[in-house]
Amino acid sequence: MAHGISLQTVVKVPSHAADPALSNKTFNRRSCKVTAGPQFNGEARLFFSGDSLPAFSTFFPRQRIQRYGTGVVKASTAVTKIKVPLELENAKEPPLNLWKNKAPYKGVIKSVERIVGPNATGETCHIVIDHGGNVPYWEGQSYGIIAPGENPKKPGTPNTVRLYSIASTRYGDSFDGKTASLCVRRAVYVDPETGKEDPAKKGVCSNFLCDAQPGTEVVITGPSGKVLLLPEQDPNAVHIMVATGTGIAPYRAYLRRMFMEDVPNYKFGGLAWLFLGVANSDSLLYHDEFCSYKDQYPNNFRYDIALSREQKNKKGGKMYVQDKIEEYSSELFDLLDKGAHIYFCGLKGMMPGIQDTLKRVAEEQGFNWEEKLSQLKKNKQWHVEVY
């Protein structure tokens, strides 16, 4: 759905190499804008430009959607995929726990950038860490981060390791294999009675990362995790990705590997279908990147959004990611029957609603969800990592 002569593609570069004037800049791209459509039968519809729109639809203000890049620069849509150091493809098994809690690696913060708008429900930062090529990882893995200082619950001991899914491919955002990117939501506690933040109860690690300055030392463990490793045996496979909030991190890595990097041993020709649930349009993460893939690879990438505070589901309630899944349930079940992989990443509270929806829809379509789920797990098509 490439529409409009001013279409642009975003290409990630190291923050120090980007023109400061480009940071947090709104670029002119006419496709993949989100609109708050009118309600049809009680359902608020979400459109992308190029779709057929009613004349009375109104766009969200552009600055709320196409903003807050992370050191991005413009490039033409004809850009070729980026060459990467292929020695990172030689490993036959994923790296696991190369650096332990008692013997971690000390990397350096390269950049920290806020990637949500002013009306987002919380602050989320994109953090690039320079590991010098010493903490290699695969897409779908996590780093452990140990914030400086003592554990307040265990004086004399380091802070607890916090795991963060890596939001870049094994080559990093600078494509040299020496960095890793994290997508971190700042954890704060707001007193329900006063409505004020309580600094004593804030998340130590997330606040350390979001407040860090370039050059800050960061203590890393890992990498860890095998549940969300991207299966690459079949480059024509279907991958259905479901995320809430910062659960988008591993999928950003998948998609960059599929669509942005020139990797001879992985020429993706299948379908990647992303479902992202956030509170509002200002809370969308990496939206421009995903839109660029939608523009360039319309037959290989689908992108559906659930905005709980700006959209209504078919019953008139808030639109959650499970409602969007229900909307496409027949198609999704058909893809799963044909061998598609489905992934879930985000807050653990997302899963009960998704499971209930899948079970109800399955029963409506005349089959047993528990049996279907058991088969998906047996076939290694079902991948869940929630926190």
From TrEMBL:
Pfam family, one: NAD_binding_1
Keywords from the named record: Chloroplast, Electron transport, FAD, Flavoprotein, NADP, Oxidoreductase, Plastid, Transport
Record-annotated FAD-binding FR-type domain positions: 102-230
Record field: catalytic activity: 2 reduced [2Fe-2S]-[ferredoxin] + NADP(+) + H(+) = 2 oxidized [2Fe-2S]-[ferredoxin] + NADPH
Coiled coil: none
Binding-site residues, NADP(+): 165, 185, 246, 308-309, 318, 346-347, 385
Main localization, broad class: plastid
Enzyme Commission code: 1.18.1.2
Keyword Methyltransferase: no
EC top class, as a word: oxidoreductase
GO CC annotations, alphabetized: chloroplast
Cofactor(s) the record lists: FAD
Places the protein is found: Plastid, Chloroplast
MF-aspect GO terms: ferredoxin-NADP+ reductase activity
SUPFAM superfamilies: Ferredoxin reductase-like, C-terminal NADP-linked domain, Riboflavin synthase domain-like
Family according to the record: Belongs to the ferredoxin--NADP reductase type 1 family.
Protein name: Ferredoxin--NADP reductase, chloroplastic
Native source species: Riccia sorocarpa
Species lineage: Eukaryota, Viridiplantae, Streptophyta, Embryophyta, Marchantiophyta
